[in-house]
């Protein structure tokens, strides 16, 4: 009972404690402006982590999301600079993310590559290379104001990226908890072979999962490009690690079959609060990297402990 309670509320309690400690350590942390800044900065990781959650529930992993993010920012920026309408550019960028995700799924299911680590490692390099080729290795800047609204503007006092994240999380909560496909995804992570013999279209579901992961990376790219006012071929470097950390901190398991969207959102906020707090405390970016790495190791260790207690 205690382990179940800790599993459900532990990440939220950790977030509250972290906010309390950073508020005491810095007078600039617990302000409305800074909190909204954290929400805005966390939106990209929250979207990448949501796609990563779907993959991890199936006991997989997607190492390509950071590179897909970069590719989609470049594609969107290139389309906009070529004079295409904003709506068309958005569709092309999202379609690019979904296509690379679909390729990940096909490599895993049709070509029977032994593990998603291999297929997504390959597409990670391909997507990053394409981003560099398309952009010539340089940022594509000065994007239209009507595009920047997705990353830099607010609706009332709420940043647009925050509204996008909330709406998408609500949609995926419904998808995972109320649809047949969502329940199938959990079943595949619980026992892939049993799911297959139960009549679940395992390969189709896996392709769908990786496609959605790529699509969400595309959404994150639109928000990031809007905020940065550019398509940047080196954007998202290491972003897959932050996304994985957010998912595991949020209560999902590398062993599959476990995880929920709200835990992942809390995990993404923990990562955002941590980075923001360390910046306010003037901690070197080098040490920030050390801290984030330690947290990833800690989160995986907690996951292993959870599995041992569950047996």
Structure description:
The protein is mainly α and 311 residues long. The protein has one domain: ABC transporter involved in vitamin B12 uptake, BtuC, CATH 1.10.3470. It has 13 helices and four strands. It has helices at 2-25, 32-57, 65-81, 86-109, 116-135, 145-152, 160-178, 180-190, 192-197, 202-228, 239-249, 261-280, 285-310; strands at residues 140-141, 154-155, 158-159, 230-231. The strands form two sheets. It has a two-stranded antiparallel sheet. A two-stranded antiparallel sheet has the order 2-3. A hairpin with a 2-residue loop joins strand 2 and strand 3. Helix 8 packs across helix 10 (202-228). It is globular and about 55 Å long. The two termini are 14 Å apart.
Compressed to H and E, one letter per element, the order equals HHHHHEHEEHHHHEHHH
Helical fraction:
over 70%
Q: Would you count the extended β strands for me?
A: 4
The number of distinct structural domains comes to 1
Q: What name does CATH use for the topology? A: ABC transporter involved in vitamin B12 uptake, BtuC
CATH class placement? Mainly Alpha
**What best-fitting shape do the alpha-carbon axes yield?**
globular
Q: How many individual helices?
A: 13
Low confidence ranges? none
Order the strands across the largest sheet as they lie in space: 1-4
Largest sheet: 2 strands, antiparallel
| Mean of residue pLDDT values | 91
Tell me the distance between the termini.
14 Å
Task: Determine Rg (CA atoms, Å).
Answer: 19 Å
Name of the CATH architecture: Orthogonal Bundle
Strand residues, percent: under 5%
The helix/strand class is: mainly alpha
């Amino acid at each position: 009972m205690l382990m179940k309670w800790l599993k459900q509320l532990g990440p939220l309690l950790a977030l509250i404690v972290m906010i309390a400690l950073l508020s005491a350590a810095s007078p600039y942390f617990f302000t409305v402006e800074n909190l909204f800044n954290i929400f805005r900065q966390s939106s990209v990781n929250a979207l990448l982590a949501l796609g990563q959650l779907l993959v991890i529930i199936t006991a997989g992993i997607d190492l390509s999301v950071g590179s897909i993010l970069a590719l989609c920012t470049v594609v969107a920026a290139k389309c906009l600079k070529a004079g295409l309408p904003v709506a068309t550019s958005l569709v092309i960028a999202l379609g690019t993310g979904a296509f690379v995700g679909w390729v990940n799924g096909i490599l895993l299911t049709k070509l029977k590559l032994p593990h998603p680590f291999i297929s997504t490692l390959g597409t990670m390099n391909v997507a990053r290379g394409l981003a560099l080729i398309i952009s010539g290795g340089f940022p594509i800047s000065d994007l239209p104001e009507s595009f920047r609204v997705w990353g830099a503007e607010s609706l009332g006092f709420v940043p647009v990226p925050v509204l996008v994240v909330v709406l998408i999380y609500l949609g995926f909560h419904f998808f995972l908890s109320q649809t047949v496909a969502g329940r199938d995804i959990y079943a595949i992570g619980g026992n892939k072979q049993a799911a297959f013999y139960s009549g679940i279209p395992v390969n189709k579901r896996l392709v769908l999962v990786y496609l959605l992961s790529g699509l969400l990376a595309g959404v994150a790219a639109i928000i990031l490009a809007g905020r940065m006012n550019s398509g940047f071929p080196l954007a998202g470097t290491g972003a897959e690690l932050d996304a994985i950390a957010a998912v595991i901190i949020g209560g999902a398991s590398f062993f599959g079959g476990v995880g929920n969207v709200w835990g992942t959102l809390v995990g993404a906020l923990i990562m955002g609060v941590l980075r923001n707090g360390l910046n306010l405390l003037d901690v070197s970016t080098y040490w920030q990297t050390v801290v984030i790495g330690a947290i990833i190791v800690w989160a995986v260790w907690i996951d292993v402990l959870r599995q041992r207690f569950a047996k």
